[in-house]
Specification:
The protein is mainly alpha-helical. The chain has one domain (about 1-195). It contains 9 helices and no strands. The chain has helices spanning about 1-20, 40-50, 55-75, 85-105, 110-135, 150-155, 165-190, 195-205, 215-224. The radius of gyration is 25 Å and the shape is globular.
Length: about 220
C-alpha cells in the first residue's frame, strides 16, 4: 500500500515537471502552439486529488507559471499587464474550473478509455471557453472578431492574420489533452496496481482456517 502511495506521488511530481517544461517560452515551435499538459493536469487533479488539494495543486501551478510568463512577455515589450488582457486571462481560470468540475465527475477506478475521453472533453472545453473569450473581449483589437456569429466562428476556426489559424490550436489542444491525460492515467493505474506478492498476501490473509475434523478434535481431547 505504501509503495502505491509513493508511486502516485512520484507520478504527480513527474507530471508537474512535464507541465512546467511545456510552458517554457521557446520550448515548442509555433506549429505546436496550445500543445500543453495543462488541460490533462487539471482534469486528472479533479479525478485523483481530494479536498483542497484538488483545487490548490493545479491552480497554484497555473498562477505561478502565468505570472512568470507575464513577466517574460512584459520584458519582450508586450502589454500583458493591461486590465483588458488580464480580464481575458481570467477566462483561462474559468476554463480550468470547468475542467476540474468535469474531472470530479469521474472516479480513479473508471476505465482507461473513460478517463481518456474525459481528458479530451476537458481540452475541448478549454478551447471553446478561451476562444469565445478572445472573441468577446478581443484584447489585442483583432479586426476579424466582429460581434456576430461570423466573428465568433472566425475566432474558433481561422483566427487573426499573422498568426497560425485557430483550427491548428484546436488540433494541438486535443492532441496534447489526449496524450498527457492518457500518459498520466496509465501511470496512476500502474502505480495503484498491486504487486503479485501483495495480491498473494491478501489472498492468504483472507483465507479462513479450515475446521478441525472429528478425529483431530478427539486427539486433542485425549492429549488434554
Amino acid at each position: 500500500m505504501l509503495a502505491g502511495v509513493k508511486g502516485k506521488i512520484g507520478s504527480l511530481l513527474l507530471f508537474m515537471l512535464v507541465f512546467a517544461l511545456s510552458r517554457l517560452p521557446g520550448m515548442l515551435s509555433a506549429d505546436f502552439a496550445n500543445f500543453s499538459a495543462a488541460y490533462a493536469l487539471v482534469f486528472c487533479a479533479g479525478v485523483y486529488l481530494t479536498g483542497r488539494a484538488c483545487w490548490a495543486v493545479p491552480l497554484v501551478a497555473m498562477v505561478l507559471t502565468d505570472v512568470g510568463l507575464n513577466f517574460y512577455y512584459w520584458h519582450q515589450g508586450l502589454d500583458v499587464w493591461n486590465p483588458t488582457v488580464l480580464r481575458y486571462q481570467l477566462f483561462n481560470y474559468v476554463a480550468y474550473a470547468a475542467i476540474l468540475w468535469l474531472g470530479r465527475r469521474f472516479k480513479p477506478g473508471s476505465s482507461f478509455l473513460a478517463l481518456l475521453g474525459g481528458g479530451l472533453l476537458g481540452a475541448l472545453l478549454f478551447y471553446l471557453i478561451t476562444n469565445t473569450a478572445s472573441w468577446l473581449f478581443n484584447p489585442f483589437g483583432n479586426p476579424e472578431y466582429t460581434k456576430n456569429v461570423a466573428g465568433w466562428l472566425t475566432a474558433l476556426i481561422r483566427g487573426t492574420r499573422g498568426w497560425p489559424e485557430t483550427w491548428q490550436f484546436f488540433r494541438n489542444t486535443m492532441l496534447s489533452g489526449g496524450l498527457f491525460a492518457g500518459l498520466f492515467v496509465a501511470a496512476m493505474k500502474f502505480a495503484a496496481a498491486e504487486s503479485p506478492q501483495d495480491k498473494e498476501a491478501g489472498v492468504r490473509a483472507a483465507e479462513p482456517e479450515a475446521p478441525a475434523s472429528e478425529g483431530e478434535e478427539a486427539a486433542e481431547e485425549a492429549k488434554a
